[in-house]
Amino acid sequence: MPTEIIIGIGLAIVVFLFINGINALPLMVIGLLAYVMQNYMDKSNIIKTSKPPEASKTITFDDIGGQETAKNELLEALDFIKNYDEISKMGIRPLKGILLTGAPGTGKTLLAMAASNYIDSAFISVSGSEFIELYAGVGAQRVRQLFKTARELARKNSKRHCVIFIDEIEVIAGVRGKNTNHLEYDQTLNQLLVEMDGLSAKEDDVKILVIGATNRPDILDPAILRPGRFDRIVKVNLPDKEGRLQILKLHTRGKPLAEDVDLEQIAKETFGFSGAHLENLCNEAAILARRSGEKVIRHCHFMEAIDKVIMGEKLNRKPTKDEMRRIAIHECGHALISEYFKPNSVSTITITSRGEALGYMRQKREDDIYLYTKSYLEAQIAIALAGAAAEEIMLGDGSTGASGDIDHAVDLAKEIIFSGMSEMGVVDRDSIPLKELHKEISKIINNQKEKVKEIIEKHKDELNKIIDYLMENEKIDGETFRSFLKDLKNFKAA
Question: Which of 90, 138, 229, 281 gets the highest tally of CB atoms within 10 A of its CB?
Fold first, then answer.
């Protein structure tokens, strides 16, 4: 019955009661509360089933770079669904759920959209937070409606399949029992488990595939991960150098690039960047080009954009001249030791304030490194301590600007100890006495600091020239920095 008719009948009854001298106020309050609750429950049943933006309809796996392993694993699972009649002869059961795990910005949502297009399915995208409300039972009701809506949407669009994509699935699929004062989470997860158990490839005319995405797989309930629910867990890692190059090529399509742009070099400079970071990098480079009045994007714009993505926009605040010189000494100390342990590693040195940093020395890597040796970690400790050591040698004392570097050096020293590479040998990180741990950390750090001071003392003349140049120009690139070093080939042996 339409809402307008119900309201009209209710008003008529209230008027009739008033005419007959009956107090209808309690009835009106009850009716109003009933109307509000019903309206709330109706809204709570609504699951956002809107289709993805127009651009996402054309997203294919060819549009996603740097995730070859994840794409291949996902494609195999999708082929089980796409070619069900053929694979059923081999006794293969199509997968009910695929869980995408990985850092933010690595392309999990894009992979889900591409999967939907690959099997020509309907697509529903929801977030885990959309299921949770104050009132118990609402989340479970929304889960039931989600699967019902998925089947209806597929039939309406004459599709044999429907992909349900649940982003931030850890919100509703976390370990049960952790929210003892709010059972809504557990009820919602229980309903999701029931719905996934009920998916049948043989009986349903619409085949549903649930794709979940999370960057916190460690907090998921074991029940959601068992075979028969999320059958396959696909790791979506940060891209390596080749992957970053692919992503950069994708995001620079259609952009006017100058001839000096070297995407391979940019890929080397962006270790640890996700796909989202790289997309933002290309966008920021284009913005910088437009800001400077250029009609093409030059390599220098990409280099500037890297600093902006990592550190943030340049700040208007300017330290005093004495502080600027201290910052220049600090950053040049980092650069000198970085170049000592790994030639050609310095990319940029700047004393321009960005974000929380007053200055910055950025390194570049020829290759991505995933395993660290003791010598590598010791070199990184030396580089971290070099800024403070340079201040002490050139100015006579240190400053609070080295606090972050010291924290980093301590973490690296702990990694040496807990990996069994220190003089303590193999240790248990949970039972090692704090006094012994502190003693070994101090020993490792002090040894490296002494080495750093010896190197800086030997190259004070070159360092002073670089500092003067940096004070005048505020920024120096790696090649210019290396040109100040005497006899660069024998620099490390000097």
Answer: 281
Number of structural domains in the chain: 4
Chain-wide mean pLDDT for the chain?
83
**Cα torsion for 278, 110, 101, 194, to the nearest 10°?**
160
C-alpha distances (whole Å) from 488 to each of 343, 459, 476 are 9, 12, 17
Q: Do residues 270 and 199 both lie within one domain?
A: no
- Is position 49 within any domain? no
Same domain, 82 and 218: yes
Query: What does the alpha-carbon distance between residue 185 and residue 397 come to, in Å, rounded to a whole number?
Result: 55
Residues 6+ away with beta carbon under 8 Å from 114:
59, 60, 61, 63, 64
Inside any domain, residue 316:
no
Domain ranges, residue 24: 3-44
**Domain end residue (candidates: 208, 235, 262):** 235
Q: Is 136 a residue whose pLDDT tops 70?
A: no
Q: Please, which pLDDT band fits residue 492 given cuts at 50, 70 and 90? A: low
387-420 confidence digits (pLDDT tens)? 999 999 999 898 888 889 999 999 999 999 999 9
Give the residue among 47, 38, 54, 41 at the shortest CA–CA distance from 6.
38
Looking at the predicted structure, is the pLDDT value of residue 41 above 50?
Answer: no
The H or E element that residue 349 is part of is strand 346-350
Cβ count near 386 (within 10 Å) = 30
pLDDT at 53: 42
Same domain for 38 and 115, yes or no, is: no
Confidence class for position 6, pLDDT limits 50, 70, 90: low
Q: Is the pLDDT of residue 456 over 90?
A: yes
What stretches of 232-345 show up as alpha helix (H) in DSSP? 241-251, 263-269, 275-291, 299-311, 321-341
pLDDT of residue 428 exceeding 70, the answer is yes
Residue-wise burial string across 20-49, b where 16 or more C-beta atoms lie within 10 A, e elsewhere: eeeebeeeeeebeeeeeeeeeeeebeebeb
Tell me, what CATH number does 394's domain have? 1.20.58.760
Looking up residue 268, the CATH number of its domain turns out to be 1.10.8.60
Q: Is 73 among the residues known to form the active site?
A: no
Find the radius of gyration of the CA atoms of the chain: 30
Which of 170, 269, 284, 331 does the annotation list as catalytic?
331
- Is the pLDDT at 457 greater than 60? The verdict is yes
Q: Say if residue 67 is in the same domain as residue 156.
A: yes
Q: Which two tokens stand for residue 387?
A: 């800024």
Count how many residues are written for the chain. 494
327 shares a domain with 293: no
Are residues 327 and 226 part of one domain?
A: no
Q: 335 and 207, same structural domain?
A: no
Q: Would residue 470 count as lying in a domain?
A: yes
Q: Do 330 and 217 fall within a single domain?
A: no
